[in-house]
Amino acid sequence: MSSSRAPEPELTMADLIDTSRIRIKTARTFNSTMHICGTSATENYERALELLTMAMRSCLCARGIEHGKCTCKYFETICDDRGSIFRSAMRDHVDCEVPWKYSKCDDVLHIEALDLRAATYEAMGKLDLAIKDAEWMVELAPQLPDGYLRLGNLARLQGNEEYAWNMYQSGIDANMITGEGSSPKLQQLHALRRHALKKDPVCLPAEIVGPIFSYLSWIEILRILRVSKQWKRVLTSPVHGGLWRDIVFPHRFWERAPLPSQLREILSWAGDGGARRIVINNGNGFTDPIVTQLLEASPSLEYLKLNYVSDPSLRSTKKIWNQLRSFTIRMSHYDRPRVDSPRGFPRTFLQNATSSLEHLDLEDMPCQWYHEPSSLPLLPRLKTLRMSEHLHMDDRTDYTPFPIFPLSVAFPRLEQLWIDSDIPYLTLEPLEIWRGKWDDVWPHLKVLKFNCTEYLDSIDIDAAISHSTLRYLMSVKSLQHLRLDFKSLDWNDLFRGRHSLLSHLDVAQYTPSRNLRSFILSSPISPGGARTLVSNAIETGQLTSFDIVFPEDSPTGNIGVRSIRHLKGYEWMRGAPSIHTLGCYKFSFPLDAETDEDLPLPQFLATFPNLRTLKICSWEYSTPEFIDVVVAVLEVTRLETIYTPCVDGLFFDQLRETAQDYGVQLLADIPKEQWPMPLEP
Fold this sequence. Notes:
Residues 198-247 form the F-box domain. By secondary structure, the protein is an alpha/beta fold.
């Protein structure tokens, strides 16, 4: 009798899978037992992977070939492009180097082995390998739900809910002929797809719903309340009161004013305190009762803007708006009645908000402010004031100088003052307010802007006084930012103390602010006048931004002579280390300039060691000629940003590439300043 043992039977694919299941179960048991070392679980997982790999290689479809990763089918990209996973999986691999032509298998044991191996990789934290196996399941058997289910679950594990939903849907689409109850895996696909469906947004938590709908205006939200009763119930509930606290009526929304019943309901949704912000951009049809209803239902109002409201009298004497911080009013056909009368300026309304009002914006000031300082509301907390007139052409021949200094008594803590269009003349009267008390005049004023559409010429006594008034205001010690926008035929004499008509004024002894940080102009002033205004700030190292506006060439002189002379007048400013932003406008140097003497601007700019931003524009050149000037500047400076509106189209693209070669960003539009200006501490 032979003593040799009989050979052990070869393990089948099913045997290998069953053995691997035991290993996986053992590994999971080890992982759930805290006092057992994790290496035991890892060893069992690795042995299970070996068995599963052996099982897959024993399948007839493998043919002994090691399959690499496909590089021509990206299922996630296909989903993003709304393509069909099933159709993609059914295609041959013709665009990648994977060495197989037919890659399909209907052996459920092969798919089961792949599924188990993907689950094992997932348990070991090797998601990339798990995803590779799941994708291969879809490739091998696109008609079965297994691969879609595994790949969708892995996508959810990575937080990619949209891809997971698309994968579940793809598995269902691939089995459209088969009923939902035909297999447990298909039932799972349907259940998971329903779970992953996009939820009704109003069913989400309130902290998510609020921000979503906050991107819509209250008018848009009002329309979508019609979607369902649930939407209306949720979006008008107290928890979403914030959606109804920003009430903005756009220019053309209301053909007629809203009904009182509509307003009452909308404001009730805002909750206690009503609206926080009310803006009426086109007030046609908004009568005083409607405005009053809006206001009285909003005692916590913080921002109010009324544009061309038909009857903006605001005659309420109630002191309930103790949180109102900003008020803007524009009048239409203002007939200048008495303060607090119908269609009159709402002085009492403002006075009642004295404890909170910080920002005031007026167009068409009450005529009483010109002659009766007592008509001014006393607003001790007011920080910013913008005021302008809106005169008809017939009114422009008889300007009345505006007394600016009574405002310093009514608004003592003002930080920003903008005197806008159609107030061309300012007056120093009454002198007793400020003479001998200059330190008490707006000790907190940091921003002064003056815009005027009229020519102010010193030969006119009112214009001369207006210049001197501005010069006094520039001497406020706290002033940091100055903006002047007006035209003058005698620009060369501005702010140089040459007003013979005003010899009785002692403006020269009032030193311009040493704290000035920026000075922006729209029209030329003489280099000597500029020196008077900013030399102190340069000496203290405070001035960082300055504009130079060049005068027009004389019609009878040589081109560029006046610009060259004007720039030479700024020799006193050359090399100022505090300057980091300069504006250069309306210059005109000789077109055939070959030396620095003929084109002195680049070398002038090169003297500023910390210059980083340049705003440059001159329409006196053709586009190619202007580009030559900019390139000459780039060659000798260390700029970071250039703003120029003078170049566009292909020329701008070419200049931007050139600027990039010098490490400079080129931008087409000079940025507009905010109002109120954001101030540094």
